[in-house]
Queue: 4 jobs
Job 1
Amino acid sequence: MVQPMKCKYLTLEDVYNMTKKLASKIKAAGFKPDTIVGLARGGWIPARLMCDFLGVVDLISLKVEHWIETGKTKDEAIIKYPVKLDHLAGKKVLLLDDITDTGKSLMVSKRYVEQFNPAEVKTATMQFIVTSKFKPDFYAEEVREWTWFIYPWNYFEDTTTLVQRLMADKELWTLEEIKEGLRKYFEIDVDLNWLREVMSVMEERKQVKKVVVEGVEKWAKA
């Protein structure tokens, strides 16, 4: 049985506009970071955009592991590759991610960065889900109803995962049935041409296989 989950695609324009709005809030608060730390993977692109909006040159990355696949997490967030960040001592640091959902990624990241004696650490996300255990200092959008946002940098990753979950419900699917299933269970309306591209990628990865039944093209789990 497919477990329903509310999802929503965001575009690069959405990301750009939210990050720009976030930058305006940071500037209005008078916070001028010396360094931006982008949390990998979701915080990379917003962090680079933020450097442009705030005129910050010093950008570093911190790999945090919490979400293991679409809508599923590990019990605790961890710093996967702990590296020394001694150069943060005495600096104002902006810790940036795409969204705070459980809040655990930002919590563990902030604690980690604070070990290196920065002058100040502020946190920021494009989106803040109100059920999060951690509220960032800055955010562009407040999300009151839990939603799994599909950002441009994980269109394929999330869509293929959702298709796999959907296809567990029966053996053979037409492209139109997959499109309808994604709408029904995950509230996303997927263009058929885009979905055909997704299925081709899944076939390359040996996640699905194409079969022809009575002249009709269908898809099955590999």
Job 2
Amino acid sequence: MTVIDRPSPNFGDRRDGRRPDLLVLHYTGMESGQAALERLCDPAAQVSAHYLIEEDGACFRLVAEENRAWHAGLSLWAGESDLNSASIGIELVNPGHEHGYRPFPDAQIAALLTLAASIRQRHGILPHRVVGHSDIAPTRKEDPGELFPWQRLARHRLGLWPKPQPAGAPGTALEAAFLLAQIGYDISDLPATLTAFQRRYRPACLDGRLDKETAALINGLARLLPKPTALAEG
């Protein structure tokens, strides 16, 4: 695919030589792609991403992958808080919930699949390390939102897609929080985290409640996680 270079001044060095192993997907949440592109390249805005993909599939590279773009903000995943150093960020042009949220066009998703597959290959990003902004910042963010085709991405190993597993599903908030933390979520505000989980895996229900269906999906996703590698005995 053709990638158009549109350098942003908004970047820095990854801290402590951190290599990216997380892919974070966003929507721009602005009225136009041009407005988003200008903001991501405005030094006064102090925000950026590595890539921006327009609704027609045009792709812009704003920050080189070896550098630390400023897209994650205050966030947490799997106990790590400097997610700008840990990740590659992709912005998808979409007005978002404030300006007329709408489905993501096929041309845009096709471009995303191509770009994300190449990023995954370059950096060895595993499926469970592909997340949305709302996953890593559930109290602040809604993007890329309930209309984003996560199941389609999972078919390309860009994320996981669980089957409900009611047997052994969490029956209490404490049990659900334990599994959500294993998955990677910040559980400091459990209703917000449940809503973020639903937004991705059960988009028809965004009530932040732990009912049987949400519990079964949490259990199903937890079972898809790679098993921890045992340390070799010395």
Job 3
Amino acid sequence: MSAPTLDETGAEDRALAKLEDRRSLTGKTRSVRLYGDRIEVCEPGETLQRIRLDSVTQVRMSVEMAGRDTQVVCRVASKSTQIVFGSRSLSGPGSWQNNAVEFRGLVLALHKALQPRKLAVRFVEGQTLGFRLIMGAAGLSLATGGVVFAGYMLSVAGSAMLAAAALPFIVIGGYLAWVFRPGVPLPYNPDQLIARFERAPEPDAGRASPD
């Protein structure tokens, strides 16, 4: 499907905001563009995803990992599809480019464009259930492994010192399992996000957006 260049009246269709984003090593860098009536994900000469603004059902903001750093990720969903973009773009194995300025501009323009329908759109913050399950399971595995190791060292090897070495793994694993336990996403006020973004100084790519 070719990317449209004209709107319904024949006038030039200009993007209100855009962001170049790459989500994975196997994926290409794609352009996320917001127009007056839709948001699209495009490659040169082709539109890969499109959601009309009047069909948006949910906007989710979350803080997620980007290598050794964190990034803010925005998910715009309709009943049939989802568009995802973040404040950092993958530039190579373990390397992420800071796109915080463009990300803030796109998120701000998106929330302003959705203002007429804000009562019909669910605005939430927090990681997705799948991400929480993965991180929670990793934490639980780490804590369980630490407990098993400590128990073995105490009961079989008789070494309290080696058993104590497992304590950091138990604590860190337990913390991860607790922090990323499945839970209900929290709603946020889109008006507050707009006000905060408009008055905020230079954005931080890894800082959560809504208060």
Job 4
Amino acid sequence: MMPFFKTLLLIALAPAAGMLFSCSPDQQMDADKLERQLLIVWIATETDDPTVARAATAAALRNWNELRTAYLRVSPTAQERDVLRRIDLWMVGLRNAVDNAPAHRIISHLNQLHNNLGELRPQYGMDHPLDLLYAFSRQWDWVSEISQDQMMCLLEWGEYAVAYQQARNHWDRFQAIPPVYAAGTLPGRLSRSTTTEHAALRLTNALADFERQLAEANHGPMATSAAHVRTEFFHFLAAAVMYPAEVAAR
């Protein structure tokens, strides 16, 4: 993590510059809003909701333009400017992808934005909640791919169990982080705590069901169970970000 963006009132920049930079709460709040809009684009893409995807992308672009202007006012280093330029490119790419590209292209742009925004995001001295959610999703994609491999050509059953456990660990670590962290990005964890907690419990139960089937070593139903976990993950994510559609209110 570059010092420019750590959660300190005053942060030392490059030694040669001898300057101090204040990372203001307003900038952090705006970054939360931006990441929330990108999560909404992700959910809308996964649930085939193009109207919401376009609206959230437009909001994300506005958030980013405001945030970039605020960052540029404090004379970022060349390395930091490079991060800003990369985000500029991926934001434009996201807008074009949402308008014209298939879902996997949109997801690719969102992944790149998440990785680059991680260099701007204030840190808590622990795993960031969003990093764990993205890590869970990536790992579950792998579990789902294995689950669809009826001949188990990709790896051994024990390795399959390890792949599941890695995904489960990401989810458990996320659950252990108090809702106050990343509250601007996942506001439903505080303001709609009952709905979000119920959605989290459904996902946890779906994972437990998958684990029981895994222990039985019966590959037949695993693809269906893996798909159910993924569905519950996006229901949880929708509740956590207070997604503006019916998927968040089931």
